[in-house]
Amino acid sequence: MRRLIPIAATLFSLAVVFPIFYTISASFFPYTDFTAIPARLLPSVPTLDNYARAFRESNLLVFLSNSLYSALAGTVLRMTISILGAYAFTFFTFRGKNLLFVLIVATMLLPPDALILENYTTIRSLRLTDTYLGIISTTLLAPTHLFMLRQYFKTVSQEYREAAIIEGCSDSRFLTTLLIPISKAVIITLAIHSFSTIFNDYLWPLLVTNREMMRTVQVGLTMLGFSENLDYGPQFAAITVLMTPILITFIALHNPIQDSVSTRFTGR
Amino acid sequence: MKSAYPKQIKPYLLIAPALLLAVLFSYRPFILTLINSLHTVSLAGKRLSFIGLENYTRLFVNPSFLASLSNTLRFTLFFVPTNVVICLAAALLSNRPGRLATLNQIFFFLPMAVGLSSSMMIIKMMFNPSIGIINQLLGFDIQWFNNRHAAMTLLVIAGVGLDIGLDFLLLSAALRNVPSDLLEVAKIEGASGVQTFRYLQAPLIGSTLLFVVVTNIKDAMLISSPVMILTEGGPFRSTQTLVYQMYLEGFKSGNYAIGSAIATVVFLLTFTVLLLLLRLERRRVYYQ
Amino acid sequence: MKRTVLLLALCLMAVANLFALGQRETQSSDVVTITWWHPNSGIAGKATDTLIERFNATIGKDEGIVVTGVYQGKANDVLTKTKAIMQSATTTDLPDLVQLDGAAVLDVRDDKSLITIEHLANEDGYDLSQIIEAARLSVTYRERMIAMPFNSSTILLYYNKSAFDEVGISEPPKTLDDLTQAAVKLKQTDARGKVTRYGFANVPTTYELMCWLGQQNGLSFITDEENGHTGIPTRVLFDDNGTMVNFLNKWKTLYATGALENLTSDLNGAFASGRVAMIVASTSNLTTIEQMVGSRFALGVAPFPMVDERATGGVNVGGGALWALDNKSGHEKETWQFIKFLASAESQLYWHIETGYFPIHRDTYTLEAFVQHLSENPRAGVAIEQLLSSNPRLQGIWVPSAYQIYYAFQSGILKMLEEGRSAEETSRALAREIDGYLADFLRMQQ
User: Fold this and answer.
1) Is residue C15's pLDDT more than 70?
2) Subunit contact B112:A250, Cβ cutoff 8 A
3) If you compute the radius of gyration of chain A from its CA atoms, what whole number of angstroms results?
4) Which domain holds residue B102?
């Protein structure tokens, strides 16, 4: 029985990874391979034509740069807001502290997807449609991140900070030279998570961007128009281009990734 | 000596951005949505007249809404256990030492590298009934997009594809945190695999398991993008979900009032479910 | 201190960039740029690009006009985006020209940003009767032409000629009764009784119902206000005038033979692969289907089947039209130049040959190249003949909540088939549901 486990695991994992393999393979298929009988798993005559067409006949690069830029900007802003907020809630005492904390964290209960109607109206009246700020504005507050950062900051003792202040260290110096380096692991983990959440967002960027040049890659990918004519090659090529850097990163960094999950979730 | 005044302001300044965002993009829209749902609203978004709960009474006899409600609940019911079982099985099967196991693990969380749109487009193409690889390879004749049951199944498959990466990672990490000495003891005592899981591992990964279940339920109730890309609610509204209908009414048909009413229903449902589950956590989860 | 200043400067730059509106085409002062949003991809997309190039190289060059085409997704995606801007404060972001389909009419028709074709034509002294009547009426509201038909199509019956020959059917079906008989003969099952080829596959869409209901008794309206062309519809008429019951009964008979498959998507694929012997689809799909079928079997096209012998109304013009919008740039004359170009006899000829949409300009039909094209491609002629012999007053319905109405029809008819409900009951239920949507819309009017 025990010996079946590795076999089962391997078969199972191969099934899970099959779509990824097929996508990469199919990106090299000539048009006729898709309707071949029996079905093909590997290209008959590999062709780079699909890639050429994906770039030539669409604005894939523009979409990609829009996504990268908004994800990067969004992550930086998000982390800044969360770090500053967590810092305040951990090391200061002020009136209404607990109430305000609950207020901020309680937004976790209000799913942003259900608020899109009103948020869209807000963005429209702020004249922020078709801008990067419009795309990232609704995700700039990450209550879970703020919560986790505060949890982590609390493990740093208050005396440590008081000592630093007595030594003449200002808050900003304490933050930048001491606290953040200590919390590097958590911050990097949260930053990566932020980046991928913003990068993968579909519904909100779809609503907020009307002009083609502002589209993010998630929205742009579904609008290439190839798959409607059953012309799958270029579509698979576009997906492969998007997917490959992240795939490689994940495979290369699989150890840190698996470890980062542990540090986040042992005992809530 | 620094005066007390700047010191008092500082924390408020630090939390101001977070607070502003919370109000602007969470609380204010929430309240406005509630208010809108109690009025008639014009095509341009202006509130016209107060009608109390009339939007809700009309909603609950609207066949389209009832379909959304039923579909969303059914989807949650199918998806959550399926996903949890699959991810847990994957985590357990690959929870062993060795290079092959590491390879298994990498394969299991690799779907996380594929974004939402990409995953959905891949599924859309692979499951095309005429020229998609799935039907051709496995010899099926299933009308994935035309048959109501097949379409719902497809949606569940899509959901699992989206969540398996992260959920596997979480469960796998939780399993790794089970102290190996306890596992040794179990082995020496002659416990079978099933017993080991039931009495030793399950309670210890309980909090993570609960987290996975809770987030799965929340994601299932709110599902919209896969519906938009894969099935557009079809066939015959059989995959139309609550948030998708909210999008249709609010953005495509301009019925803001009805859209807001649906949004409110979504809030209430998710909120209730989350509360119930948090209650459960207090009673049943074992912390080391 | 220096570091903080540097940091601050970087932040300011970044913030400024966040407000960036993406890449803007630089406008030189002596060239007018016209933006055209459209849902044309694939073959139609290539034809669109060619037409734009042609204009830019000829009239555009002479008059200093450059047209930019933007593919905005499917027809209702284009509408969602256009609507979003129309309702916002920044209507300067509107395109000069947008191609929308029938479902979009109610959203655009009464908007203050719309510039009607009637207005543009009158300013220019252009004779609108050059546009063929059926197409012209399809975009007429209260006697004024509010858009320019562009990608106009009707519905055709596509059938597998090889399969027809196989089972000995010599003529394509003319009425639904004929269709039912043919479907039965064409159905094939394997040894285990599973159906390997269906005679016909379809679940009626709003567009098809407009024809099947509207063609009865020479001309029949589905809603009041002449299907929404004289005012906002308040209720449906198909229940009262019995056209729905008549149609549903025929449909039930068809389904009872077991030769009908309830497919709602990928109909072209199912037909091209031989799984289904007959489908109804837009004339604009002709080139795509021809390509997909390839040499697998002989393709035939025939006029859209009538409900019964008394349904002589024919078909109505569907597809989309070009709408001119006011984005406060003052470029309406240049936009009109481009519209005239697209609607011209030669452009329409090219557009027709490439895509299968039929020409809307009456002079195309007398062009030598067109006549020759028809003689070489008799299939293209079927759609045209069908349209020209139809009642031009048979028009599409302009109703709100198009999506919901489409689903209502589909779900209602499916329910009838699967639960064995009566045609009368189904017709009543559909009328009730759709009247509800119409009433909702009226309540939202200020």
Assistant:
1) no
2) yes
3) 23
4) 62-284
